[in-house]
């Protein structure tokens, strides 16, 4: 398990005790609308279940615990948004709230 390995490396002196690991999660990545993207490919299709799994793993393994980067709130051109929308409503914010409450406790 990642956390166990990392803590062993810190305890053995191979990594500094102030080591920080902040994983990043992303709901989707679609570069078809940007100039550098492939107009025929969605790199990471949107899937709320996969996002939930990603954020669960990220929150469980981050150091310090609970620190996660979410890419992004409102990048509509790359479709990495978690901002409420007509299509997804509040789904992604609800997933974040559910996972954070489960792993870190109710805020």
Number of helices: 3
| Gyration radius from CA atoms, angstroms | 16 Å
Choose one word for the global shape: globular
Instruction: Give the class from helix and strand content and strand pairing.
Output: mainly alpha
Kindly estimate the percentage of residues that lie in beta strands according to DSSP: under 5%
| H-E order | HEHEH
What fraction, in percent, of the residue positions are helical?
25-40%
Q: Give the CA-CA distance, first to last residue.
A: 27 Å
Sequence of strands across the biggest β-sheet: 1-2
Overall pLDDT metric: 87
Report the count of strand segments.
2
Largest sheet: 2 strands, parallel
Ranges where pLDDT stays below 50 over 5 or more residues in a row are none
